Amino acid sequence: MKKIITLVILVTSVIGSKAQDSLKADTLWRLSSFTAVNFNQVGLTNWAAGGDNSFSLSGVFSGTANYKKGHTSWDNSLDLGYGILKSGTSPFRKNDDKIELNSKFGTLAKGKFYYSALLNARTQFANGFNFPNDSVIVSHFAAPAWVTLALGMDYKPNDYFSLFVSPATGKFTFVNDTRLADLGSFGVKAAEYSLIDSSLISHGRKIRGEFGASLRARFSKDLTKYLNLTTSLLLFNNYTDPKAYNRGNIDVNWETLITIKAGKLITTSIFTNLIYDHDINIPTYQKINGEKVQVGQGPKTQFKEVIGVGISYKISGVKTAKN
After folding, report:
1. What is the pTM of this model?
2. C-alpha dist (Å) from residue 149 to 25, 120, 213, 266
3. Is the CATH number of domain 2-320 1.10.10?
4. Can you give the pLDDT at residue 247?
5. What is residue 183's three-state secondary structure?
6. How buried is 286 (Cβ within 10 angstroms: 0-12 exposed, 13-18 middle, 19+ buried)?
């Protein structure tokens, strides 16, 4: 834990001092944002083939602010997403929920390589449930939240691709909810209870710190006038895992967004997100006597796919201090 705290202080001081020095100069920024709203509705009346009325609405925002001058670069991005779904007589449910902030500061080492510091933070907006059970909250804002701080080398051969490798990475998992922390959700240490009378000895921890190595690769480019591909892969391997001999337990977060323009404002988007974290237990369900019953839990590969057609708007430009 001392190593992680030291890393946090070091990364924070590097980003803060270097960023302030850089902004004193005539800075050059590349700014861009992408906003999309997708809507889908199905209404059925006396429909012989069967089915349910349905309604879904989702919104996506992705913004970047990247600075580069001389031997200095500073890349920032904010990605937001939220969606709701209603089918038949069921209540509204969320089907997308994301807040992610990235900030990476680097100074030139040689050629296309930069000494860099990286900050990544992820959480969600609203409460989450394991439907059809809509009475027990399983997640909410800052429960969980993940913060990653890393020092390493960044390879940037062009404006649309970067590969960041860090042998010194601190990863923090926050569960800002006593009940969820007591359950040991999202890999934090669970509460301890007496073996004699089951009384509470100590609450679960709301923070879990890990120290290890990480890799982050990002590609974002307009492949054609109408087609854009953005994909990001984040890997983390924990040095402090008690099972240190098993280096195969690598945390994976891989996101891909494909946007296809059909006009000035109409866009089709395809978003996928693959996650694997050995410390997160996913419930296993079976149908018993027609009812969905949890029969176990364990680490599993998580996958999400969102396809939408809707209204979008993109802004991009360059800004200097003189502007």
Report:
1. 0.82
2. 26, 7, 11, 37
3. no
4. 57
5. helix
6. exposed
